[in-house]
């Protein structure tokens, strides 16, 4: 499972970095076209906006996988090790439910509803933009499952291996 997590981490890092790099290049071109060529391009603005949606959603799933999300430690700081472990399981289950119900199911529904809407500049269905939500939901769900399995109590047999 560690190999799968490392592979997923690498894919997410490359994907988010690539989207961000493309966004930077597009913005640089947009500034060049507007200021030097005196010919603003509306396609670039829309492309960067949609790239921001995708990178934000994918990066949020990646952060959940790294357990780097924002958290309030007021409760966990006052718990013993067993209580902290139980709280971590509860948090991961809640993340899992959120990913499954809100992001995957709700995001898929939103994507399907908006497939008929066409973006003004790029002329692509808006459902492809909203597809960032269920895709990142699937990634978040995978990370939550891995986090739960990593937090599972070790048995005598697994410690012997």
Automatic annotation (TrEMBL):
One of its GO terms (molecular function) is transmembrane transporter activity. Keywords: Cell inner membrane, Cell membrane, Membrane, Transmembrane, Transmembrane helix, Transport. Its main location: membrane. It comes from the Bacteria. GO terms for biological process: C4-dicarboxylate transport. It is a multi-pass membrane protein. Residues 23-151 form the Tripartite ATP-independent periplasmic transporters DctQ component domain. GO terms for cellular component: plasma membrane. The chain crosses the membrane at residues 12-32, 47-65, 86-108, 128-149. Belongs to the TRAP transporter small permease family. This is C4-dicarboxylate ABC transporter.
């Amino acid at each position: 499972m560690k190999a799968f997590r490392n592979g997923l981490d690498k894919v997410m890092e490359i994907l988010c970095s690539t989207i961000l790099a493309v966004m930077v290049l597009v913005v640089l071109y947009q500034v060049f076209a507007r200021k030097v060529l005196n010919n603003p391009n509306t396609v670039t603005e829309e492309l960067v906006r949609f790239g921001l949606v995708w990178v934000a959603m994918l990066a949020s799933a990646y952060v959940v996988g790294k357990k780097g999300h924002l958290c309030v430690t007021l409760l966990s700081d006052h718990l013993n090790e067993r209580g902290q472990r139980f709280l971590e399981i509860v948090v991961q289950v809640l993340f899992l439910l959120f990913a499954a119900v809100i992001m995957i199911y709700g995001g898929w529904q939103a994507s399907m509803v908006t497939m008929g809407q066409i973006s003004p500049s790029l002329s692509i269905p808006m459902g492809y933009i909203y597809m960032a939500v269920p895709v990142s939901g699937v990634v978040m769900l995978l990370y939550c499952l891995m986090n739960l399995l990593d937090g599972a109590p070790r048995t005598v047999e697994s410690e012997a291996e």
